Amino acid sequence: MKPPYYAVIFTSKHKLYNDEYNETAKRMNELTAKQEGFLGIDSARNEDGSGITVCYWNSIEAIKKWKENTEHQYAQQMGMKEWYESYSVRIAEVTKEYSMEEV
Question: What is the mean pLDDT of each run of 10 residues along the chain (103 residues)?
Fold first, then answer.
């Protein structure tokens, strides 16, 4: 990815894992990959249930469209009601990127 682009940073602490959560998470990954403007995703979770997912997008407009997706809205509601003890979302503009291979 070449900057500039945007990162949606989702941090969370799980309170409940169940089949519905697992299926919904899988579906969100499938849907996100099909969204216009989607560039990629990185995700990690600790054994204690805390985790981070970063989705990369080419524009703020693409992020807004994803937030308005009805299946995504259902997942958000379930996250608030059932699955997460806590969460936060941050949106950042990436203006520079480099990696070990480029140093």
Answer: 96 86 92 96 91 97 96 94 94 94 70
